[in-house]
Specification:
Layout: E1 3-10, E2 13-18, E3 21-27, H1 29-33, E4 43-48, E5 53-59, E6 65-66, E7 71-72, E8 76-82, H2 90-102, E9 106-112, H3 119-135, E10 138-141, E11 161-165, H4 172-179, H5 184-194, E12 206-209, E13 212-218, H6 230-233, H7 238-244, H8 261-267, H9 273-287
Parallel strand pairs: 3-5, 8-9, 8-11, 9-10, 11-13
Antiparallel strand pairs: 1-2, 1-4, 2-3, 4-5, 6-7, 12-13
Helix pairs in contact: 2-9, 4-5
Cofactor: Zn(2+)
Organism: Bacillus glycinifermentans
EC number: 3.6.1.-
Length: about 290
Amino acid sequence: MPEGKIIKALSGFYYVLDGDQVIQCRGRGIFRKNKVTPLVGDDVVYQADNDKEGYLLEIKKRVNELVRPPISNVDQAVLVFSAKEPNFSTSLLDRFLVLVEANDIKPIICITKMDLAGEDREGEIRRYAEDYRQIGYHVYLTSTKNGSGTEEIIPHFQDSITVFAGQSGVGKSSLLNAISPGLELKTARISAHLGRGKHTTRHVELIHAGGGLIADTPGFSSLEFTGIEAEDLGYTFLEIAEKSAACKFRGCLHVKEPDCAVKKAVENGEIASYRYDHYVEFLSEIKDRKPRY
């Protein structure tokens, strides 16, 4: 049986990419019966009635799955922030990083508009960028004047499924054009969708760009930690996860416990204090969350 990847889902039809051709498929009733919804990004087995139409028979095991946007098997998320208008925020970046790490998605951090930051702010952002590189993240700084810095990001897109996430006005459309100049006609559309209100519903689509597939949809329209438990939060802060192995108590939450290796690392400057502060803030948010029944 032929296999492919769902690149678009619309009005009960699933568009399956198999090599260079796209087959319009319907889902079998078995999916509804088992309460399984095929998602964009799913690797599937299908049966072709002809070279344009067919039926989905099987959904392969997913690596990950997002609710908003509804997409599966995402390899990486480009987290786009601007140096200015809107101003760069480590708190918002850390919130995005938690959500990405919790879903086993590789984050790539891109800070745009560096030429507009001003000398003092530019130096501060470069120091932050170095902090995140020390943790192990890819961080890229780009300029609006000539698009400098974007060329370093392009190799990441090869053979990957990528979602973009970030606030409105951070320069996602410019970044997309730099990745794939042929996207120019679609960019305004994509950009509008990336910054749209979270209550609008719209289909998700994977488009070819940079040698891979990019989701034409906003990434992580919900920034709440609904699926993350208190004891799992530390694993989404990579440097905290690394140090926690040396904590005296198993299951240490790194707040009030004695002989905590994470708190010692913060005191010694091995973990940035603002990262630890965000961890404590997010932990409190998770603990205060209302239970869902």
